[in-house]
Amino acid sequence: MHLDLVQVYNTKGALSYAGVRRWAQRFRLGRKSIEDDPRPGAPITAASPIKSCSIKKLIDLDPHITIWELPNSVGFSMGSVDHILRSQLKLRRFALDESHIYSQRSRKRQG
């Protein structure tokens, strides 16, 4: 089975031999799908509309705010802020010296 995967997906795209063995054993034990099993507890929601709005307002007020200032200003983790900036606000960061400033990809230069 592993050799078939390597032939189809090459060595870089194929699952390792140990991974194939683990999955084969899971299916032998009755697993029906490769989808993740449901996990207990509430889902993790890093990006809520309220969080997105508060970050957007800060950036609108100060377009030169650094990535290091945002989490402290809004009280969210760096990971949550980064996720909201990239996924919801469609922003990317630019490095200027040691400051990391976010700018909208599709926004035309104002000048």
Give an overview of the whole structure:
- The longest helix has 13 residues, at 49-61.
- The protein has two domains: 1-31, no CATH class; 49-104, Arc Repressor Mutant, subunit A.
- A hairpin with a 2-residue loop joins strand 1 and strand 2.
- The chain has a two-stranded antiparallel ribbon with strand order 1-2.
- With 111 residues, the protein is mainly alpha-helical.
- Helix 3 crosses helix 5.
- Helices cover 49% and strands 11% of the residues.
- The protein is elongated, with a radius of gyration of 22 Å.
Structure summary:
It comes from Oopsacas minuta. By secondary structure, the chain is mainly alpha-helical.
Task: Spell out the blueprint of helices and strands.
Elements: H1 2-13, H2 17-28, H3 49-61, H4 69-74, H5 78-88, E1 91-96, E2 99-104
Antiparallel strand pairs: 1-2
Helix pairs in contact: 3-5
Protein name: Transposase
InterPro entries: Transposase-MT_Hybrid
Organism: Oopsacas minuta
**Mean residue pLDDT:** 76
CATH class identity of the largest domain: Mainly Alpha
Strand order of the largest sheet: 1-2
- Helix share, percent: 40-55%
Question: Could you list the spans in which at least 5 consecutive residues all have pLDDT below 50?
Answer: 97-102, 104-111
Count of all domains: 2
Looking at the structure, the CATH topology of the largest domain is Arc Repressor Mutant, subunit A
User: Which structural class do the helices and strands define?
Assistant: mainly alpha
Return Rg in Å.
Answer: 22 Å
- What order do the helices and strands follow? HHHHHEE
Oligomer: single chain
